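The material for today's practical consists of a large collection of protein records. Backbone structure tokens are a discrete shorthand for how the chain folds in space. An example says more than a description, so a record of this kind follows:
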Amino acid sequence: MAFIDIVLRRPSYGWQDEQGNLIKPRPGQIFAEFFKRLNIVRDKRNWLSLMSWVKVLCMVPFLALFIFKFFSLWLLLAAFVYSMFIMGTHGTIWHHRYCTHGAYKFKNRFWRFFTQNLTVCMIPEEIYVISHHVHHAKSDQPGDPYNAEAGFLYCFLADVNHQPIATDLSENDYNRVKSLMKHTGVIANSYQQYLSWGSYQHPGRAMLYWLLNWSFWYAAFFLLGGHALACTLFGAAGFWAVGVRTFNYEGHGKGQDKQRPGTDFNQSDKSINQLWPGIVAGEWHNNHHLFPKSARSGFKPHQVDMAWYYIKMMNTLGAISSYHDSKEQFYKLYESPYREALQNTANHAEA
């Protein structure tokens, strides 16, 4: 079978039936798979999925302290900006455009490390990157790890049920995983370590990175605003980590055809451009599916793209050495022909 068909860990309910149709598991099946895959006593290779959700649970006390002890309108504003704009934009800059699609290149490792750690770390690169390649190859088809047609829970719990890499890859296939992850700077397991832990990254290194990143940012927030600000922004990071799990369900029209002429030009799947994700994170999703390797997806004047502004600024400063920008192609191949067709239709109507 093709690499893209086997690289992710297949859920117990499968991707498709014998006729090739998408399997839409019941909520009970989804929850059963979810809790089974969090059980490290049953299988230690579940460690990465468990760690991802433990991070979220660790943020609950911080969020509670913000709400019940430190709450103020200024801190509410800080939480809103950090969760929606800063965390959202960083996810697009780092996980999406760099780690997955290689839309730009850093001048050196320092600037890569700097960009990676601009925010509190919440999502393991390995879970995001490999599965997102599959998502683009199989968008809205059986095997898409967050296929919106299978429902909200299918997408929301996908990081555990559908996104982890398979635990039984051949050495050649594991080397292909390594090639997709190498540029991220995340250190790879050897093949024997991969067979033991079921992951690209070693749990020891992952937990050390988690500790150092969180320690740095709590100390930085504390120096800026004491425990009140630190608890507020850590709680906001946890809020974002839950909210981002809903994005692909919404970004693919909840499994329905919600595309609009003149707005959504990629019609090979159900991806749509949405105003709010576009503004807060630069996620003009239909544009992105048209040109996945572009460092910019906000092509039109009203499509604010703060992720692109960061990439362009860092390029100007010399921290980013090169990038892909598909804006010119977008106008040439899609926007301009569409406007010309509208004008021709109007002219014929007047005639």
User: Anything to note?
Assistant: Strands lie at 104-106, 320-323. The mean pLDDT is 96. The CA atoms of residues 44 and 80 lie 36 Å apart.
